[in-house]
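Reminder to self: tokens first, then the designed residues, so the page reads top to bottom the way the pipeline ran.
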């Protein structure tokens, strides 16, 4: 049976990029990129639950 890890949102990192979008491009070594042409979002995707009943 494969192990499926759940992914959690890193709130601090998301808030930092939301407030200072240029920092994202510095992290990925693209400091000359204009962050104003991008939209930073954190969509929530939920998987259908599975239940094993009796």
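Designed residues (54 positions):
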């Amino acid at each position: 049976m494969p192990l499926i890890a759940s992914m959690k949102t890193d709130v601090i990192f998301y808030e930092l990029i939301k407030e200072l979008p240029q920092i994202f491009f510095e992290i990925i070594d693209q400091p000359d990129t204009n962050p104003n042409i991008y939209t930073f979002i954190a969509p929530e995707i939920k998987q259908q639950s599975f239940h094993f009943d009796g």
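The chain has a mean pLDDT of 75.
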